[in-house]
Amino acid sequence: MKEIQYRKPEDIEKRSFEIIRREMRTNPPPEQLPVMMRVIHTTADFEYEQSLRFSAGAMTAAREAIRQGAVFITDTNMALSGINKKALQQTGCSAVCYMAEEDVALEAARRGVTRAVVSMEKAAAVQDRPLIFAIGNAPTALLRLADLISEGNVSPALVIGVPVGFVNVIESKEQIMKTAGEYIVAEGRKGGSTVAAAICNALLYMQTR
Q1: Which residue segment(s) compose the domain that 196 sits in?
Q2: Domain annotation covers residue 33
Q3: Which residues are catalytic, by number?
Q4: Edge-to-edge strand order for the sheet containing 131-135?
Q5: DSSP annotation of 129
Q6: Contact indicator for 137, 164 with CB cutoff of 8 Å
Q7: I need a labelling partner for 202 at 20 to 30 A (CA). Which of 83, 85, 134, 175 fits?
Q8: Which residues contact 53 (CB under 8 A, 6 or more apart)?
């Protein structure tokens, strides 16, 4: 049996990215490559080479928003916990999730809508810094966000639209690509909170490493 070589975490990550780059079949624009590679690193799924879609100004918008101390808004606490806190601190950015807050739950129950819908409405009230929305779980969050953008109630610097599932998932992604000015979207059914966090981290690391 071949002996397994245990390396330091940073060595393992470096080697993993070398393997990913070697096995990729596409040659994306250099500024998009770190995002794509980190998503593949997180999922071990090379289909993201084909499904990740970037608006023309997505990377520029992300860079400028982070430079101004963006607020990352997630639709799950899992995605929130996955965003690197050291990178947030180094860039002067912050991250929040309103899904578990009591007022959001009460308002959602009163209106008979999902907490994801109400959490997006609450997030739209944050106006003091650029907003980067990272939606990895709830298509209803993405659909409500699209409505809020159309209504002129919020103007995100960037929308990361990667909800996972079978109901309204594809439709919500298509809608946000029509509505949001700048976006990174995973077309199709795949995505998830870990993918959303991976994209956030890739954007942050590009400003800190």
Answers
A1: 47-208
A2: no
A3: 41
A4: 52-54, 183-186, 158-161, 131-135, 71-74, 94-97
A5: S
A6: yes
A7: 175
A8: 177, 183, 184, 185, 186, 187
Angle at 19 between CA 161 and CA 11, to 5 degrees: 95
Whether the pLDDT of residue 1 is over 50: the answer is no
pLDDT(6) > 60 = no
Mean pLDDT for 49-74 is 97
Number of domains in the chain: 1
pTM, whole model, 2 decimals? Answer: 0.94
Residue 159 lies in a domain: yes
Grouping H, G, I as helix, E, B as strand and the rest as coil, residue 134 is strand
Helices (H), the chain: 9-23, 33-43, 48-51, 58-67, 77-82, 85-91, 102-111, 115-123, 139-150, 169-179, 193-208
Determine phi and psi for 185, rounding to 5 degrees.
-130, 140
Strands 183-186 and 94-97: unpaired
Please report, as a single letter, which amino acid is at residue 7. R
The answer to whether residue 35 is domain-embedded is no
Task: Find the mean pLDDT for residues 127-145.
Answer: 95
CATH number at residue 164: 3.40.50.10230
Spatial separation of the C-alpha atoms in residues 13 and 140, rounded to whole Å: 34
The sign of the CA dihedral 80, 83, 86, 88 is negative
Cβ pair 182, 160 in contact under 8 A: no
Is 2 among the domain residues?
Answer: no
Separation CA 129–CA 152 (nearest Å): 17
